[in-house]
Amino acid sequence: MPRLSVKDSLFTAAAIMVSSGLCGILSLFGSGDVHVPLVFVLTVLVVSRLTEGYFYGIFTSIAAVFGVNYVFTYPYFAFDFTIAGYPLMFLSMLAVSLITSALTTQIKQQEKLRIETEKEKLRANLLRAISHDLRTPLTSIAGSTSILLEDENRLSGEQKRLLLQEVRDDALWLIHLMENLLSITRIGGEARIRKHLELLEELTGAAVHKFRKNCPAVHLRVTAPDEPIFVPMDIVLIEQVLVNLLENAVIHGKTLTHIDLSIALEDGMAVFSVENDGEWIDARVLPHIFDGYGVRADEKRGAGERRNMGIGLSVCRSIVKAHGGDIYAENTPPRGVRFRFSLPLKDMKDRADDGAKEGKEGDNAS
User: Fold this and answer.
1) Which CATH class is domain 193-366?
2) pTM
3) Which residues sit opposite 223 in a β-bridge?
4) Per-residue pLDDT tens for 322-354?
């Protein structure tokens, strides 16, 4: 037994009624009944493409054959299957529905497989990125605390302070790493997130405050529109994106002296730009920088290194994509790197509601 869907059932019924109405209107203009089979073949094609499974396409084929015969063919409002060409018409519609439904089902299965593959790839990238990043700071923390406990009396105050500072830095990096992992968890397996209208000023204020707390020595300039702007988002996740991009610039900019954070409105999108004047990213790495393979081609990670470009940027891309936006990176002449990401100012649902509202207002005006 096919699994029936209320949505697909209503869509199928509406498609058949619209096609019947269109054929009736065309008949009033004396165009004959030549157009009727073509209209219903198109209806079968649309229903088969936009519904789940094979049932609705086959049902539409059968309904179209009987409906065309009964309503639009002489003798009208009576069945006559002796008309030449009707067996071919029925088989043609049935073949269209079966082929289209099969192709649609295959496409949807491939899309599900693609989503699952991306999820597995993301998990693999995260595991690869954190396998070293977790072990190294934990080892460093254990070593520093052991020295403090065992050789406390032989260490000077300055040596103790340096060891404690290393412990603090490693602990902060672990916290940052956990925030990235929690961000992935918040996105969820189906990349569905709960978005609310958030004030852009609150987002940038929170991200800048956290960044300046962690990197007080870095000069940061912020440019944003003066008017209040609300963007549908999960503010915790987008704040994580901004902090990741800002801290990534500090970690890998090397010769960096300042960072520019700018926000602009472009074509219904809020566009965020994080630009620094540090070293360029290797051209071979740049196209794959969001894939989780973030260590530069010319960098060799020493035993004490714990930071890379992979996990943070992989998280950033996942979050931005889940919001319906896009993110990319580019080198800027004469030096520096720019990261840009965009967020829609309205959800697809909001856009659809606005379109329906505008259409209703237009009907009322007419």
Assistant:
1) alpha beta
2) 0.54
3) 262
4) 888 999 999 998 889 999 999 999 875 555 455
